[in-house]
Amino acid sequence: MSTQRRNTKRALKALVFVGAILIVALIGAVIYFYMLGDTIRQDERSDQITCGCYIIDPAVVNDCGDPKKAILFDTKTVSSDQACNVTCNTDLLSEYVLKSSTAVERYKSCNVRSISDARCQSMILTDQDGKLITGKINPDDEVNVEAEFDRDSYKDYTFRVNTQSEQPDRTEGTKIFKKITDFGSGDSLEILATATDSRGDSINSIICRRVVEIEREGGVGANSLVASTERQSDGRTKISQVIITVGQIASENVKVSFSFGTRFATIIAQDGFNVESAKGTITLTKANLYDNSNFAGGQSFSILDNHTGDLEITAEVFVDDVSIGVVKTEVNFPEIQAPIVEQPPAQQEEKSNFSASKTGAPSCVERVDSKNEATFTISVRNNAQQEEGITSIKDKLPLGFEYIAGSSTINGSAVNDSSVVTVTTVGSTQEIVWQQSNNPWNVPTGGQLVVVFKAKANSTALTGENLNEVIVNPVQIPEDPASLRAETTIIVAQDCNNIPTTPTTTPSTGILDNVFVRIAIGILLFATAWAVYTRPEGTKLSKMILDSDVYKDAELTKYKITNPKKYFEQKVIRGKK
After folding, report:
1. Distance between CA 192 and CA 161 in Å, rounded?
2. How far is CA 472 from CA 5, 67, 356, 391, 393, in A?
3. What is the distance in angstroms between the CA of the first residue and the CA of the last residue of the chain?
4. Beta pairing partners, 269
C-alpha cells in the first residue's frame, strides 16, 4: 500500500512538472505571437506616410516653419509610393469664435511634408469664454485643452505643461481634457499631450504640441525706444526705423515729440506712425520719418542728415494731449564715407520645369511572335513660363526586352535611328537614348515632346510585372529632378487572356486561434495525466522524469529560493555522489 502511495506521489510530481513546462511554453507562445502581431502592425504603418497642414495667426507669427504656433491641424495619410499634399481651408475658422482681431481671410495655411507620429490626431485650445486661442493669452485667462488620440487603448495619458507632467482632468474615449490657470512666471506656455503605447514608447506628435505667448504688458506708458540705422548709397547714415514700446493704447489721438539735445530742434510727429495696440508698440518707418508732412512745423528727421558721432534721441509720447512717458536711446552716426557703388543684382540661372510621363500598350505581352510587341509613349511637358530645351531622353527597357529598329517617332514624325537613336546593350537588357547631334529639342511653354517607340519581349523576358523607366535630361538645371523620371509596368505572361493571380491572404498570428489545435492540446494533456496516474508505463515515465538531471536541477533551484537549508543539504549530498 505504501509503495502505491509513493508511486502516486511521484506520478503527481511528474504531472505537475510536465504541466508547468507546458504552461511556460504556452505563455511564451502567446507573448511571441502577440509581439509578432504588433510588429506586423508596425510594418503596415511603415508602408504609409502622413503629411499635414496647420493654420497660423499673422498677428502672432508671420512665417511658416514652427508647427507649435498652430491653431488647427489637418492631416492626410497615403501609401509610401504616393505624393502626400494637403492644404488647410482657413474658412474653417469661421465655425469658431476667435480670441483675435485678425480677419479670417488673413490667416495662413502652412504645410508639413512628413509627420512621423500622428497617433495624437488633434489638439484645440480655448479660453474661459469658449474662444479659440490663436497664439496669445493674458495672465488672467484660463486655457482649456482638448486632445484626441487615434485609439483609447493607450496608457498613462498625460499633459506636459512647461515640462511639468499633469494628469488630465477627465478622459472620454479617445479624448483627454485639461484646464490650465497657473501659467508660471514666464512669457510663454508650452503644452504637450502624450501617452504610452503597448510597447512602452511615448507618443510625441507635433500635432498635439502648442506654444502660446502670455502678454504681460502693464498699463499705458512709454517703456523703451529702439532706433535702427542704415547706411545710404551717398555714404550718409539715416534712421531706418523707430519702435517705441508702450501699453495698450485705446485712443487714436497720439503724438510723439522727438528731441536731440541742444544741437537740433525738437520735432513732433503727428502722423505716419503705426500704433499696434495688441502688441503695445508705436512704429515709424524710414519713409515716414523723413516725410516732412508727418511732422508739425514741416521738419522731419532730415535735420540729422549731416550729423556724425553719437546722438541721444529722446521721445515723449502723448495720448489725448497727455504725456504717458519719456524714453531715450543713443545712436551712433559714423563718418560719412565714399558713396556705395551698387552692383547690379546677379541674375539667377533659369531653371527648367519639365514633367515626364510614360505609358505602354498593350499592358500584357507573350513570348511568341505577333504577341510579343509593345508600344511605349513618353510625354515630356514644359511647365515653365518660357521655352526650355531637352538635351536627351534615356529609356531603360525591362529585362529581356529588345528595341525594334526604326520604330521611333518624335511628335508624330519618324526619325532616323542612325542620327537620333542610340541603343546600348547592358547585360540582358537595353538602354535607348534619343539625342540630336547638334541642337536640343526646344519645347514651348505648355508644349510637349512626345516620343513613341516599339519593343518586343524575347525568350529571356521575366514572367510577371516588368518595370520600364525613362529619364529626361534638360538643358537647364531642373526645379524638381524627380519630375524628370517616369515609369510604367508591362506584364509578361504565358497567356495574356488567362493571367495568373496570386491571392493575398493574411497569415494567422496565433496558433491557439485554431479550435482543433486547442482540442488537440487538451486531449494531449488529459492523456498524459491518465497515463502517468494509471499505467505502469506512466510510473516508469514519472520515475524517469524525477530521476533526470533536468528535474533535479529545477528542484535544487526551487530549494535555493524557498528552503536554503535543504538546498545546501542536497548540494552536499550530490557533491559526494
Report:
1. 7
2. 89, 36, 7, 8, 5
3. 30
4. 256, 295
Q: Which domains does the chain have, with CATH numbers?
A: 1-46+515-546 (no CATH), 49-214 (2.60.40.10), 235-333 (2.60.40), 351-492 (2.60.40.1510), 549-577 (no CATH)
CB atoms inside a 10 Å sphere around CB 35: 13
Cα distance between residue 481 and residue 498, in whole Å: 39
Among the listed residues 393, 357, 365, 358, the one whose alpha carbon sits nearest the alpha carbon of residue 455: 365
DSSP string, 94-143: GGS-BSS-S-GGG-EEEEES--S--SEEEEEEE-TTSPBP-SEE-TT--E
Task: Look at residues 238, 262, 260 and name the one whose alpha carbon lies nearest to residue 312.
Answer: 260
In order along its 577 residues, the chain shows pLDDT tens digits of 455 555 556 656 666 666 667 777 677 665 655 554 544 444 444 578 889 999 998 888 777 888 888 999 999 888 877 888 888 888 888 888 888 888 888 889 998 888 888 899 999 999 999 999 988 888 889 999 999 999 998 999 999 998 789 999 999 999 999 999 988 766 678 899 999 998 888 898 989 999 898 876 544 567 778 888 888 888 888 898 898 877 667 777 889 999 998 889 899 999 888 888 767 788 889 899 999 999 988 889 998 888 888 889 999 989 888 888 888 888 888 887 666 555 666 556 678 889 999 999 898 999 888 888 999 999 999 998 888 989 999 999 998 899 999 999 999 889 888 888 999 988 778 899 999 877 888 999 999 999 999 999 888 888 888 888 999 999 888 888 888 899 999 998 888 888 876 544 444 545 555 667 777 777 877 777 676 666 676 667 667 776 777 777 777 777 777 776 677 667 666 665 5
Q: Give the C-alpha separation, 389 to 25, whole Å.
A: 69
Residue with cell 540630336: 436
DSSP structural state of residue 9: H
Cell matching residue 577 = 555522489
Q: State whether the Cα torsion 14-19-20-25 is positive or negative.
A: positive
- Grid cell locating 61: 507669427
Residue whose C-alpha cell reads 519593343 in the numeric block: 455
For residues 90 and 96, give the distance between their C-alpha atoms in angstroms, rounded to a whole number.
Answer: 11
